[in-house]
Amino acid sequence: MKLFLIAISLVSLCSFAQESKDTKSQALLDKLSTKMKEYKSFYVEFSAHVKNASTGLNESEIGKGWVKGSKFCASYGDNTIISNGTKTWTVVKEEKSVYESDASADDEQSMNPKKLMTIWESGFKNKYEKEDVLNNEKVHIINLYPKNAGKVDYHTIIIYISKDDNELKKAIMKAKDGTTQTFTLTKFTANPTVEDSKFVFDIKKYPGYTLIKD
After folding, report:
1. Average pLDDT, stretch 173-198?
2. What helix, strand, coil percent values describe the chain, rounded to 5?
3. What's the pLDDT at 111?
4. So what CATH class is 2-213?
5. Which residue has the higher pLDDT, 116 or 180?
6. How is the chain split into domains, by residue range?
7. What stretch of H or E contains 4?
């Protein structure tokens, strides 16, 4: 559950206006954004790890998500989020609850995989760090710094972009309290065939759950 909430907070970072830009890093990010916008749909799998040495926190989780236009369906551990572009349903297994809310392009509470894959597009200053190797693959490393640093609980997000295929491979969020959360992309499929039924919520599939509407 803790990882699920932290994952949502990572996506909500997109709520602030962008300011200064590093020329090299901005060119790479713009290229990646253009590539992402060309996809009519995509499927992604990733692993997430959160650690804080001072508190003993050390948890791992896996996630996956389907995106088609403004619709998405994603799972993070035991939790599921479904959105048909108009309504969003967050299924929390631990609570046996389903939270229904209006979907919105700038809804900070929804864990939309598309936001995760385009998190750099607003709210950050960016700086090119260096070229490195990740899992035997050459990558560009870019640091993102929040413009409104006083309003968020993190100070840096580090993203790794493949040099050869221009794809996001990894993202690391460093919080002010010493917590580090790492997202590693393990699979990405562009333009898969996804039936619209994937984005339809049916309460009958969750017997015993309480539906809570905002």
Report:
1. 94
2. 20, 45, 30
3. 64
4. mainly beta
5. 180
6. 2-213
7. helix 2-11
